[in-house]
Amino acid sequence: MTLKLRRRKLAQAMATGLLSAVFFTAAPLPARAENAAPDACAPDEELAYVCGAQRPEDIVALPDTRWLIASGFAKGAGLKLIDSAARRMEFWYKGGPDQIAPDTRAYPHCPGPPDPALLNDRGLNLRAVGRNRWRLLVVNHGGRESIEVFEISTAADRPGLQWRGCIPMPTGQVGNSVTSFADGQILTTVLTRPGTSIADFVLGRDTGAVWSWRPGEPAFHEMPGTALPGNNGIESDPDERHFYTIAFGQHAVAVFDRNDPRGPVRRIVAPDFMPDNIHWTAGRLLLAGMRYDEPACGGLRKVVDGVADPMLCPRGWIVGEVDLAQGRIATIAYGTPRRDFNGLSAAAIMGRELWLGSFQAERIAIAPLPAPGKVAP
After folding, report:
1. Which of residues 236, 266, 296 is at a domain's end?
2. Rounded Cα distance, 101 and 99, in Å
3. Quick one: signal sequence residues (predicted)?
């Protein structure tokens, strides 16, 4: 090794050490994470973890409780209930008699409860439906393509869960994310319709759409004008008039008028990352995803011979907040590539922490939530 090369490697090592020092100065890990036993899913220099989650693609916080819910984007990965105080996770839906209470009048086209051994879910949506009662919508791929409907009770210290029904997706359509409105309307995104591919939306071509269902309707129907390059995360606005859809291939949030969805009324581009899911959490509209231009992975996501890079190379992670007044997305937390936590896809606020989901990892990550106006590296 030449003297010049030795000096270059020493400089790189010093830079890495400086980045770690800056992280600990700006955003120290919670004491619970710092004191974790080595065999208890130990934290790294940026994140603490809860392990065994099996691709928790989406994650939401139950308001006014210490509990979170995560999906599982793999066969049998199902729903997870997470105690944020104890940092413990359990598989929640087991399909026992106490968890099955079908509403056949509301969901007459549902063939029956999902098999917990097959439950493979992605997007989640929570909506209050009464005192201490919440409706949980789940995009399911396990045994059928459907939106599963659960009801949650938070009257007791530990939340209770009951399956209430499902709405099957139209033949050939695969749901991705889901949201709802107070009048019962449900919207779900389709990332790639039949005949399109991931490579298409990476290249900026329209591949998906938003599909709508209202109580009493026999099935979902596509909403004309909502096609985007990779319709991904979706969320409704508290004004009950607008909804937000992630255009994954454009790294942007498309804002639609619910009453006239013939094309976005606004588009807000994310700074150097690929937003996946988008949710209101603790009164803030957050989205999360992987860094788009990642030097460690050769830069931009590429399409080679018609196939898009599957992004298995660890990319940096970013959590952003949508500022609707300014029409911009502010970065509130970010980090460098993590060997054991790639594929950031969702973020939820619990107290002074960010809880992070992934469509690739076998764990949930936890990062400090910076104070408003600050950014945590």
Report:
1. 266
2. 7
3. 1-33
The DSSP line for 43-100 is --SS-EEEE--S----EEE-TTSSEEEE---STT---EEEETTTTEEEE-----GGGB
Domain, as residue range, for 212: 188-266
Q: Compute the chain's Rg from CA coordinates.
A: 21
The verdict on 283 and 343 lying in the same domain is yes
The token pair that represents 162 in the structure block = 């009951």
pLDDT tens digits, 87-134: 999 999 999 999 999 999 999 999 999 999 999 999 999 999 999 999
Q: How many CB atoms lie within 10 A of CB 174?
A: 17
The CA distance from 365 to 236, in Å, is 26
What are the CA-CA distances from residue 367 to residues 321, 332, 334 (Å)? 15, 11, 9
Alpha carbon 170 to its chain's center = 23
